[in-house]
Amino acid sequence: MGKYEQTFRESLENPKQFWGRAAESITWYKRWETVLDASNPPFYRWFVGGVLNTCYNALDRHIERGRADQLALIYDSPVTDTIQKFTYSELRARVAKIAGFLKDLGVTKGDTVVIYMPMIPEALMAMLACARIGAVHSVVFGGFAPRELAIRIDDAKPKIVLSASCGIEGKKIIPYKPLLDEAIALATHKPQKCVIYQRPQVRAELIEGRDLDWVSLEQKAQPAECVPVAATDPLYILYTSGTTGKPKGVVRDNGGHAVALSWTMQYIYGIEPGDVYWAASDVGWVVGHSYIVYGPLLVGATTVMYEGKPVGTPDPGAFWRVISQHKVKVLFTAPTAFRAIKREDPTGEYLKKYKLSHFQALFLAGERTDPDTYYWASELLKRPVIDHWWQTETGWAIAGNFCGLELLPIKAGSATKPMPGYDVRILDPSTGKELPRGESGVMVVKEPLPPGTFMTLWQRDDDFKKTYFDPFPGYYFTGDGGYFDEDGYIYVMGRVDDIINVAGHRLSTGEMEEIVAQHPDVAECAVIGVADSLKGEVPLGFVVLKAGVQRAHAEIIAEVKQKVRKEIGAIASLKDVLIVNRLPKTRSGKILRGTMRKIADGQQYTVPSTIDDPATLQEIESALRPAHLK
Ligand code: COA
Ligand code: AMP
Fold it and tell me: Closest ligand to 388 CA?
């Protein structure tokens, strides 16, 4: 039996032994009493009785063990032409002072803090500072519009919001403060204070009495010590798109999270203390939480924080430059980033300028790595290109390959094998029965989920159960569809619900529909994700106008597109809006989005037997013709 097989089996047959051993890599103030408390499914709790501090584990203990002068963080920002490096002791000094000013502002253990920041070192420091004093952070992706930020502020009810004067998106400068002000005006909950980090590119106007200057606070603050928290206390809330307009607040614990991420750094990514690891993502997404901030620091590695794009900052050689300049061992990014590089530099000319001597593997996630991208990247890099399957809910990979354990043979299009702790099964969606290898169905994970996965949804235990565990009793419902092949390799083929992944950003078509439906001329609408050669998927809208609307269609279309961008953010740009007379529906009135999607993607489809009027599908086909049909 290979190492993977042995490890995987042990993790399922004896999870307490397996994860108990993994937990030895973490420094505890008090050891756990029970590795797994399964007394209240699906609310499993890991390392009950354990007491630790995540920030201590990410910073202080490495300093105590002689890594004070090793680099902890490299900030590389081609958009501001800056490279800044922080050793572990420098990073701890900044984090402890930030934690100090949070304390001065009255933030204590269990309080929530919203962080709405661009990709600057202070964003990572803010997260660790919260962890240091036991506060619960909720990072909101900087690309979200005020309405989205307001929804999250109302749900998380932060005492304090931490923000910056601007973000920089390629060549665009985006002032954040007006967005923050608008969000607070929209929100019912009002944070007591906002602390603003003034970047040199834009100076934000501070509102007297509410807004405070970050740098002055930090200068005055006393460094704060780490506050011991229970393993089961929340570390953070991260909102993610669900099928409705209300995002779901995924809650992560401290203990299970630290144990699981440390395990993954060593065994999945093959990272040792002192190695340089780069997740080219954003701190606003789960990948940023787990692998820009916590994972690399928990194991004493150096993390790279990159404020730039794969192309255009300044060219498609940007990734190779960063890998070579900072001696990156492992890069983790989304397939869409590689498609962007491939589009601009198909023969890899830019790669020839750089030596990637330390580089060992590329990890991809966020969407399935399509075989074309896989072959292109692996032939170009001549290193393992590893697709691994992920969700915000799980916080780390559900399936993947193992640079630090046993590199299994790679099959293009497959996310390889389930991770230890994840007993993945494929079920028939209508009967709930398990399907044999080779057959496609919904992908579920047998309870309990391993440590590091979500504990609940923020203050919505009922929704946690209803959304994820009630659909298939005894299993966690991933929302993805796929199958195992004959060799037990996993193929994740896409969501079976209303969630789409656009350029690595998770968005809800249901939420977009709610926004489109609010346009005064719209009677009814549907938004579907359609295939896109760069972004993987993009949203496409269909609109039925109210009777009697006489306005020019072009005007309405532009307004609908603008409305979605304004209310969710530029990342949610509708590819187009098609005005149709009616939408295809079942006799019970359910819109046939799946069939519409197949038509738009140029795939074979069968007319559903439940359809109310088959002619509606032909109408959709002609609306899509000629511009949108593949
Ligand atoms: N703040 C403000 N606006 C943002 C933003 C942010 N943090 N991120 C994206 N946007 C804006 C972009 O500027 C763009 O605006 P525009 O329509 O006015 O030009 C819009 O949102 C769409 O952005 P994006 O989807 O990123 O497309 P793009 O064409 O700018 O870039 C890629 C395409 C593939 C290069 C880019 O999406 C990319 O690097 N993706 C990888 C994402 C990733 O790493 N995800 C994490 C998964 S591991
Ligand atoms: P997010 O919560 O933003 O990480 O998005 C999670 C979703 O992205 C999953 O449910 C999948 O639909 C998709 N996804 C992420 N990684 C992969 C992958 N490697 N293969 C296929 N789909 C993926």
Answer: 2
Confidence (pLDDT) at 629: 56
pLDDT of residue 150: 97
**Is 615 part of any domain?**
yes
Quote the percentage of the chain above a pLDDT of 70: 99
Tell me, in angstroms, the distance from the centre of ligand 1 to residue 514's CA. 23
Q: How many CB atoms lie within 10 A of CB 606?
A: 7
| Buried b / exposed e along 202-233 (16+ C-beta atoms within 10 A) | bebebeeeebbebeebbeebeebebbbbbbbb
Residue 606 placed within a domain: yes
Question: Which letter, b or e, does each residue of 419-430 get, where b requires 16 or more Cβ atoms within 10 Å of its Cβ?
Answer: bbbbbbbbbeee
By percentage, how much of the chain surpasses pLDDT 90?
Answer: 97
Calculate mean pLDDT across residues 167-183.
Answer: 96
Q: What is the average pLDDT across 267-281?
A: 98
User: What would the pLDDT profile of 595-614 be if each residue is shown by its tens digit?
Assistant: 999 999 999 999 999 999 99
Do 278 and 415 belong together in one domain?
yes
pLDDT at 242: 81
Instruction: Let me know whether 246 and 187 are in one domain.
Output: yes
Q: Is the CB of 167 under 6 A from ligand 1?
A: yes
The pair of structure tokens assigned to 570 is 């530029």
The number of distinct structural domains making up the chain is 2
Model confidence pLDDT, tens digit, residues 446-460: 999 999 999 999 999
Question: Measured from the CA of 389, which atom of ligand 2 is nearest?
Answer: 19
Q: Which DSSP state fits 31?
A: -
Q: Is 281 left (phi over 0), alpha (psi -120 to 50) or beta?
A: beta
Q: Is the shortest distance between the CB of 495 and ligand 2 below 6 Å?
A: yes
Rounded to whole angstroms, the Cα distance separating 45 from 216 reads 41
Residues 557 and 466 in one domain: no
Task: Tell me which residue range forms the domain holding 36.
Answer: 3-308+388-482
- The token pair at 511 is 């939420």
Confirm if 411 and 489 have CB atoms less than 8 A apart. Answer: yes
> Is there a domain that residue 335 lies in?
no
Compute the distance between CA of residue 507 and CA of residue 240 in angstroms, rounded to an integer.
Answer: 8
